[in-house]
């Protein structure tokens, strides 16, 4: 017998994330493949999934669509945001924050982030408001929700729409209010790696604005109203939802809370052990559970690349999200303020290192990861 398991690398993206659900996935495919209705998109399972999330969130409406990215696009389009308009987005985050805004012809305006929580700094955002500004589009980052109370107040004070990119924060709650329900509209993503990821592409728009909901519902299916086929009220797009994904997610939803709780338990363990490292160049995310959802657990390390190599040598796979801030990306630099600087975003891009935090990590693996970080010579 060989005992190589002790030295096996703990992966950052585990290939066995859905292993326990493989039979469920096969059953789901069979169920839909043999259903006499032969309805593969926007059927009754999608409607039930929308209703489940709507009830769960206490939201006015939930509209399932093709991805988290198109969910943002649908919201921007439904709000009438277009050429000549500006949308303030964080300078550090994923590409959809910029490319969805550019996709509707508007301009993303990049606001710097808070140096520790890594979410958009409301003061930086406020300084960028001009007569062209139509919306604020903050994103919850890694494990920390954006400062939604202050951003809400800012949007109200300046008469702006508030779009909440809650793609990674499903299940998070801030001041008793769920992520996704703070903005005029919010989104979730069900792409594989997200906390409620599934076997394919999908997303939702969450909103309690009935007019916005009605428009998003039409836009996702070529501007039709769901009653009159081939009558196109609006210039829409194809961003529909798959029945197999809906059935799979309906059946996995009851386990979501426990999986999120396990992520939070692992993160709490990490933070407890890593807090003393703050004076030695390794800063854990802010502790606590309010406004947190541990989609990703991210350290800020002054010697990030050394720590990354040290972890690899100890068979722990770390991951660097977003090694470049959005305004420095080749695709977006032309839209950014010339000569602009986003010092906190630039520092985050140099220092971020994420650790595995998925719910099926064993306690022994969590301990190995913790020890690997603690033995980094600082
Ligand atoms: C994943 C993600 C998206 C996009 O979701 P997709 O379903 O991959 O299109 C948008 N915003 C944030 C913050 C994300 O992490």
UniProtKB/TrEMBL annotation:
What is the name attached to this protein's record?
dTDP-4-amino-4,6-dideoxygalactose transaminase
Q: Does the keyword Lipoprotein apply?
A: no
Keywords recorded for this protein, A-Z: Pyridoxal phosphate
Q: Which family does it belong to?
A: Belongs to the DegT/DnrJ/EryC1 family.
Q: According to the lineage, what is the superkingdom?
A: Bacteria
Keyword flag Amino-acid biosynthesis: no
**Residues annotated with N6-(pyridoxal phosphate)lysine modification:** 194
**Molecular functions per Gene Ontology:** pyridoxal phosphate binding; transaminase activity
Q: What is the lineage of its organism?
A: Bacteria, Bacillati, Actinomycetota, Actinomycetes, Kitasatosporales
Task: Name the residues annotated as catalytic in the UniProt entry.
Answer: 194 (proton acceptor)
Q: Which InterPro entries match?
A: DegT/StrS_aminotransferase, PyrdxlP-dep_Trfase, PyrdxlP-dep_Trfase_major, PyrdxlP-dep_Trfase_small
An example GO biological process term is: polysaccharide biosynthetic process
